[in-house]
Every structure is written in structure tokens, then in C-alpha cells.
Amino acid sequence: MITRSNALAALAADTFDVVVVGGGITGAGVALDAATRGYSVALVERSDYASGTSSRSSKLVHGGLRYLQNFDLGLVREALLERQINVKLAPHLVKPLPLVVAAFEGQRPDRLTGVGLNLYDVMSVERLRSRRPGRGGGPAVKEAHGALAIADLDGDGLADWSPDRHRVIPGEEVVERLPALAGRNPTSGYLFYDCQTDDARLVLTVLQEAERFGAVCCNGLEVTDLLDAGGRSSGVHVTDVVSGAAFAVRAQSVVNATGVWADRLRPEELHDEAEVPVIRPSRGTHLTLRHDQLPLVSGAIIPAGGGRSIFALPWLGGTLIGTTDNEVEPSEDPHSLDHVAPQPEDIAYLLDATNAYFGTSLAPADLAGAFAGVRPLISTGDPKKSVDISRKAELYETSSGMITITGGKLTTWRRMAKLAVDRLVEREARDAPCRTHEIPLGQAVGLDEMAQVEGVPEAAYAQLAGRYGHVAHEVLRIATERGEFAQPVVASDDPARPRPPDLLAEVVHAARHEQARTVGDALLRRTRLGLTAARDVAAPEGVTARRVAVAMARELGWDAARTETEAQAFLVEAAREGIVAG
Ligand SMILES: Cc1cc2nc3c(=O)[nH]c(=O)nc-3n(C[C@H](O)[C@H](O)[C@H](O)COP(=O)(O)OP(=O)(O)OC[C@H]3O[C@@H](n4cnc5c(N)ncnc54)[C@H](O)[C@@H]3O)c2cc1C
């Protein structure tokens, strides 16, 4: 990405066609969509990219099997198509994930679940399966993770992916896929496929692609109001949270993509004119464990009482468990949603369900990390719980011309962006169709193409390839600059507790090329160590935080005092975010 100072200079000097407010997945998608249709685009994010909900999801790119219970067929169908498009555009970053629903004590897998999975199969693969070999279609190229990868079927130059149908698997295979379940002797199970990503890295990748098409993106810029030109918006007033400077970003159109904060920007306009239903934030908590504490090869669907279920998923070499779904009480405090920490009752709920299912006795003190986020759910006035509120996206255009797009899911980011930019195109009567379904997001890289760098642990290469695609070459080049850059960020001498392979070179890369400004930016969203190794990175002695701050200091020109302040600031942030549970 361009440096923040270059972005600031461009934002103050130029006039844009569109300014996008919010650097989560929705804003990033709008920036990419608008830029690829020929608009000049600015994007401003008040904190860090993906620091809102988009770094706090379950990381699934999925149709949402459980929404079938609500007969939300349109939503599931749309999300399944988007799942397929995401894998096609970013195969290194959005990957098929096998999931298992196990059955015990000689029972057959639940029949109703089977009915749901049949429907899921039909809705997800109808288009591709009809063109498979033997059914009049193109050549299959390989079986990847048991999910069929097919050569370019729609002629857009990109390989298409389509999952296998769900099937019943024997108990032994359930244990192979969910080793943590061995003690419970499962007798059989369903196996089906969804996809998984790294949400914050998906946001950064979409932003980088938008930038390639000319978008200017800057974090640490808070929009305080719209610029007014005779009742119509002509840009936004921003405050630089780093320098305190206030200035205007001029643009013909404003797109508000601020997620749960959407009704904080011009609330009277939104509520009076568009009758925007209230955004009802719902808190979702996740827990992480080391792989050896709860080993999983595939994901597991775990009953959690009251007809609800939770996931336990393999993610970045560890295990991710989630999620809860609790409505957040309305608050007068405008910052109440800025740092949402996991609550003890959420942690207990997730651990109770996990322990009951796997026969484990995991306690809060065992957790590698924990995090919470808030869903931007749109209340439909239905008094039911948030679990039943729609995950649909909503678009509002108000008298100032501001377009607000909120709700939705990580999976459907491209559809949401299209909805917003189609509206812009329509009102200007332009001829500019959406192209994001055919714009690759980054470029995948093969493990055999990557340079071997002395000191870089073996496990790092696959993670780098998945996280950065082709840009992994640049990270590895940085790793050769100094011996320590090739080392993992978290040091550990205990072979029984292998350290996550995230490299110090990634921290340098984040500060140099990805507008990371704080230790938290590097640990929570560029690498994901704040989630997968919270106990290590947020240890009170601050050894790791200091190590990261020193690596960033060289890039950002911090002196020794500032470096120490930044390391300490991360420890405060970690406490506020509640990433160390128990
Ligand atoms: C617990 C949980 C689990 C989930 N799991 C999944 C899942 O597995 N799969 C899936 O598809 N979806 C999932 N979701 C939903 C998904 O994460 C969200 O729908 C999505 O991330 C919302 O993105 P967004 O860009 O609209 O909002 P955000 O990511 O919140 O982005 C909005 C941004 O706007 C910025 N902002 C706010 N005000 C201003 C201002 N005045 N000026 C400048 N910037 C501002 C914020 O800082 C923020 O970065 C989950 C959500 C939660 C909470």
C-alpha cells in the first residue's frame, strides 16, 4: 500500500468521485468495486483497517447452514454463490474447509441435519455440477481436500471450485478428522464443506487490489461530518487521529460503510428520512487454543443447548471456537462498541459446550486467546432474539445523497459493494457494470516458488503463502535483511509448545507496506498473534510487545522512549480487548 503520509497528501489535495467511510470488508469492497468501474476513490478508516467487526468474525466464508432453519433460502443461496466466487478470486486466502457433524452410541447422524445438508448441496453446486465431466461439462483437474476443483468453467480465465456433496463417514474417519473426539468413540458422522479465511487479511487484500486500481486509502482518519454544498454532501470532514489535524476530503459522493456505527454518521438524516431500522448490535465471542490442546483436522459442529450450535475449527495451526450471540444493551456512551471484550459468561458457555462434547476439562486459564466482536444486525422490529434477525444487507440513500450500506456478512462483501456502487452508477446514468467477480484478489504462490531463507521455520512458508500470496516473496526478502527478521515473533524454547510461525519480517512489512501504525495493528490484524498467542504477546513483562515495537521503530522513526510507550500501549489495548482470558 502507499504510505500513510502519501495518502494524507493525496486526500487533502485531490477531489474524488467517491469517498468511502469505513475500512472493514464492506468499505474495502465498495472501494474496489468503484475503482474498477473507473471512479476515483478515497477510503478513510478512523482506527485501523478491519479493526471493527471484520477482524472478529468466525472466519467462515459460508452459506450459513443454520440460516436454513429460518428458511432464509435466498440469503443462503446468495452467500453460497459468493463463497464460490471468493475461492476463485483468492484461492490462497479463502480455502475449502471440511466440517463434521458426529453421531455417537450407534446412532445414525441426525436425519433433519441430513435434509438441510441435501438442500445446501443443491443450492451450492447446481450450476457447476451440471457441467462436470460425464454430465456435459469441462475437465476436472484435481481433488483438493476432497472438494473438487474444476478447470475454468465459465471461461473467465480463473479455476472454479465446487464442493463435493455431503456424505456419511464411519466413526474411524470422524476420529481422523477430529482427533480430539477419540475418547468419545463416535460411530459415524456427516462430512460437508464450507470455506475459511483470515478475515483481516481478506480486508487488506481487497484494499490492496482497490489501490492497484487507483483508490487512495488511509487509516487513522475519523469522519466527523459531511461537507455540505446546498444540502447535498460534497465530501467529508476528517480528523487525523495521529496529528489531531482536521481537513476536508472532497468527493461527489459519500458511501457510509461503517458497520455497527452506521447510524452514528448523520443519525437524524438516517432515522428521519430513510426510516432506518435500529442497528441491534449482537456480541459474538471466540476462543483460541493450541492445536495440541484440542487437535482438529476438520471443523466440528458442536451442540450448545437450546437448539444452538457452535463451531470448533482448525485455524492458523490452532483451534478456534465460537461463537456466542448476545444482544448488546443500548448505551449512551458513543464508544461503547469500540472495544468489546469477551465476557466471563460467554467464555463459560463456549467452554462448557466444548468440554461436554469432547470430554475435555479446559478452563479459561488454558486458552491461548479470546476475542469478541459485534454484528451489525438490522432489527426488523421482530421481538425475537438476534440469532433470528436478518443477516441481509441494507442500503439507504438519504437527502444529502449519502449512501449507507450495512448489515450482511463477511461472505457477501462483494454483493454489498455491488449494491452500493450500482446505486451510484444508476443515479449518474453511467454505463459501468460491476467487474469484481472477475478481478483476482492478489496472486497465489506455490510453496516451491518461494526462496528458502536461513532461520525461517518450515511451518512459516505455508502460512506466508496463504496470508500474502505472491507478496510472500517481499516478506521473505525482508527476512534476509537482518537475521532476527527471519525469526518468529514469539520466542519459545519449549518443543512441546511450538511457537506460531508468524515472522518478525511480517511486522516490518506491516509497518513498511501496510500502514500499520501501532503494535496492536501488527499483532491483531497484520499477523494474528494477538488472537492465536495472546498469552505470549500480551505477557505483562512485555517482552514480545517490545520486540515488535523495536522492529516497527526503525520503519516509523520512533525513538527509544516512543518505542517503549508503544509497547506499553499494546499491553493496555490487550487488556481492554480482553484477549487474555482467565
Ligand atoms: C462474532 C461474529 C462472527 C461472525 N462470523 C462470520 C462468519 O463466519 N462469516 C461471515 O460471512 N460473516 C461473519 N460475521 C459477520 C461479518 O464479520 C460482518 O458482517 C462484517 O465484518 C461487517 O463488515 P463491515 O465492513 O460492514 O463493518 P466493520 O468491519 O465493523 O467496518 C466498519 C469500519 O468503519 C469504521 N468507522 C466507524 N465510524 C467511522 C468514522 N466516523 N470514520 C471513519 N471510519 C469509521 C470502523 O472503525 C470500522 O473499521 C461475524 C460477525 C461477528 C460479530
What are the SSEs and their pairings?
Layout: H1 4-13, E1 15-21, H2 25-36, E2 41-45, E3 60-61, H3 73-89, E4 95-103, H4 111-129, E5 140-144, E6 147-150, E7 160-161, E8 167-170, H5 171-177, E9 188-196, H6 199-212, E10 216-219, E11 221-229, E12 232-240, E13 246-256, H7 267-273, E14 279-290, E15 299-303, E16 309-315, E17 318-322, E18 326-327, H8 344-358, E19 369-378, E20 393-397, E21 403-407, H9 413-427, H10 458-468, H11 472-479, H12 504-513, H13 519-526, H14 529-532, H15 534-537, H16 543-556, H17 560-577
Helix pairs in contact: 2-6, 2-9, 11-12, 12-13, 12-16, 16-17
The chain binds flavin-adenine dinucleotide.
Please give a structural write-up.
The chain is of the alpha+beta class and 582 residues long. It has three domains: 4-55 and 201-278 and 383-438, FAD/NAD(P)-binding domain; 281-375, D-Amino Acid Oxidase, Chain A, domain 2 (2-Layer Sandwich); 447-577, Helicase, Ruva Protein, domain 3 (Orthogonal Bundle). The chain has helices at 4-13, 25-36, 73-89, 111-129, 171-177, 199-212, 267-273, 344-358, 413-427, 458-468, 472-479, 504-513, 519-526, 529-532, 534-537, 543-556, 560-577, and strands spanning 15-21, 41-45, 60-61, 95-103, 140-144, 147-150, 160-161, 167-170, 188-196, 216-219, 221-229, 232-240, 246-256, 279-290, 299-303, 309-315, 318-322, 326-327, 369-378, 393-397, 403-407. Strands 3, 4, 8, 9, 14, 15, 16, 17, 18 and 19 form a ten-stranded mixed β-sheet that branches. Helix 2 (25-36) packs parallel to helix 6 (199-212) and helix 11 crosses helix 12. The model is unreliable at 129-143 and 384-389 (pLDDT under 50). The protein binds flavin-adenine dinucleotide. Flavin-adenine dinucleotide binds next to helix 2, strand 2, strand 11 and strand 19.
